[in-house]
Design brief:
Helices cover 44% and strands 22% of the residues. By secondary structure, the protein is α/β, with parallel strands linked by helices.
Length: 198
């Protein structure tokens, strides 16, 4: 496994690689991360040749920008699906937001609600529930499912197994990319995807 920390030096972008021993357990954890399950949502074609994994926090101020950049790069490249894995690191409320969003999956509202909520200028649990109500979500049913949802904890455990310590974090072909003091552009993500597809 390689972890790349994206940082800026003037106009140039440098990639600082930190190499870790890639054991079987890492390979297994990467496979778990790329596999769509009840702890994640898929944006794009389920049969895409490449799956990009994104760990994000709904309370993180940088995650919406990185997410939108990834979505745009994936759509422009084609043949790429994004597996989104929410965590609740930034605050207790961010964990509640992740749990509530994932609890709308059985009502068929998860993807649309996620897309709308990622564009929210002031994310909060109150704002999320108001948005969900407008989308036709049965709030009481979602709250009941939310009480049983261990989704953010599962994704946090998976991040720890992969030795990922920051968010947002993106996995492309078993390489982990973590924005540092600058956020990646659409073209930077496209170049990474193109390199993997070679």
């Amino acid at each position: 496994m390689r972890i790349f920390v994206l940082s800026s030096l003037g106009m140039a972008v440098i990639f600082t690689a930190i190499f870790f021993y890639q054991s079987f357990s890492f390979a297994k954890n990467f496979t778990q991360a790329e596999t769509l399950d009840s702890y994640s949502l898929l944006i794009g074609d389920e049969n895409a040749s490449l799956r990009v994994v994104e760990f994000l926090d709904y309370g993180c101020p940088f995650c919406p920008s990185v997410h939108q950049t990834l979505v745009e790069a994936s759509q422009l490249e084609g043949g790429v699906a994004l597996v989104v894995r929410p965590v609740g690191w930034s605050s207790p409320e961010s964990e509640q937001m992740a749990k509530f969003l994932m609890a709308t999956a059985d009502q068929g509202k998860l993807k649309d609600l996620h897309v709308r909520f990622m564009q929210s200028p002031t994310p909060s649990l109150v704002a999320l529930k108001a948005m969900a109500q407008l989308e036709g979500v049965d709030i009481a049913k979602a709250e009941k499912a939310m009480a049983e949802n261990q989704q953010p904890l599962y994704n946090e455990i998976l991040m720890n197994k992969l030795n990922i310590k920051k968010i947002p974090a993106v996995i492309l072909n078993k390489d982990v990319f973590i924005p540092n003091d600058t956020l990646p552009t659409v073209n930077q993500f496209r170049l990474m995807i193109q390199e993997i597809k070679k």
